[in-house]
């Protein structure tokens, strides 16, 4: 579980995050949603330690990350897997070498053990057959799956994904969402996903934190999204492609009736 307590982030005199408190639960896909510029990325960067909070605390299973020394934070990062926008793979390394890279850097395993572990993770994302290919020889969706395999290779307790579906078609996005949801359950990770994708909200939104202009406007699950009377949340969700499509189908059905 990751707990954010009264988090405020200012850049000079600009307050980007204002007194945010939220709990992100273990074994669940926790989503951060909000309009462009609302502060989602800044929130995630504070949580993983890429930015320093101006005020507030971040607790990893009760451990106060904000109070840790630099060395302790580096140790904590080994418990975190990260998937950034785009897949951010090394073009000159094969799929397997990409997945194995964190092991080569941070583990004391033998070469044989590292290769075995990388292959286990590739198998988990159903890409073992592509292990000798280079990133430019595989599709965008496959590249994302390689990034997921790489993010879990060190067995993280916490998984962070920034817009995992950006640049992917809806069908491939569903595959990625399903995979993220499954590995979250399998490995009992605390997974936090920044997303614009309302299909993801409705598919894997077990715990959704809605950020509006830097403050927490709403928190709930996907079923509560549907029944919520929060106008700002409804504006965000019902302005999405998914709901426009649902509405269009309903209108067509009415016309045909
Ligand atoms: N280093 C910085 N210095 C000053 N302002 C910043 C800095 N980083 C982000 N901001 C501002 O913080 C606000 C929130 O940005 P953020 O990137 O978190 O939004 P977001 O919700 O992730 O948007 P998007 O969905 O478009 O990625 C924006 O107004 C942005 O300009």
Automatic annotation (TrEMBL):
SUPFAM superfamilies on file: P-loop containing nucleoside triphosphate hydrolases (SSF52540)
Lineage top rank: taxon: Bacteria
Keyword Signal found: no
Family annotation (InterPro entries): AAA+_ATPase, ABC_transporter-like_ATP-bd, ABC_transporter-like_CS, P-loop_NTPase
Record domain ABC transporter: where: 2-238
UniProt-recorded Gene Ontology molecular function terms: ATP binding; ATP hydrolysis activity
UniProt keyword list: ATP-binding, Nucleotide-binding, Transport
SMART domains in the record: AAA (SM00382)
KW ATP-binding (keyword) present: yes
Protein name: ATP-binding cassette domain-containing protein
Taxonomic lineage: Bacteria, Pseudomonadati, Bacteroidota, Bacteroidia, Bacteroidales
């Amino acid at each position: 579980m990751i707990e954010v307590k009264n988090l405020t982030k200012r850049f000079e005199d600009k307050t980007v995050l204002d007194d945010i408190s939220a709990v992100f639960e273990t074994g669940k896909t926790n989503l951060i949603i909000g309009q462009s510029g609302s502060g989602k990325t800044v929130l995630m960067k504070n949580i993983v330690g890429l930015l320093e909070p101006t005020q507030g605390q971040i607790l990893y299973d009760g451990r106060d990350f904000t109070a840790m020394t630099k060395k302790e934070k580096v140790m904590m990062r080994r418990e975190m897997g990260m998937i950034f926008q785009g897949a951010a793979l090394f073009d000159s390394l094969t799929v397997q070498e990409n997945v194995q890279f964190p092991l080569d850097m941070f583990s004391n395993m033998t070469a044989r053990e590292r290769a075995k572990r990388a292959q286990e993770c590739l198998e988990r994302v159903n890409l073992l057959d592509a292990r000798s290919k280079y990133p430019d020889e595989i599709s965008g969706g496959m590249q994302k799956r390689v990034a997921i395999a790489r993010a879990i290779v060190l067995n993280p307790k916490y998984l962070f994904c920034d817009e995992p579906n950006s640049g992917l078609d809806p069908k491939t996005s569903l595959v990625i969402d399903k995979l993220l949801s499954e590995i979250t359950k399998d490995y009992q990770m605390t997974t936090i996903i920044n997303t614009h994708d309302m299909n993801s909200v409705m598919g894997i939104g077990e715990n959704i934190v809605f950020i509006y202009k830097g403050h927490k406007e709403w928190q709930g699950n996907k079923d509560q999204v549907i029944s919520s009377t929060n106008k700002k949340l409804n504006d965000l969700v019902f302005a999405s492609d998914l709901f426009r499509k649902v509405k269009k189908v309903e209108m067509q059905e009415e016309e045909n009736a």
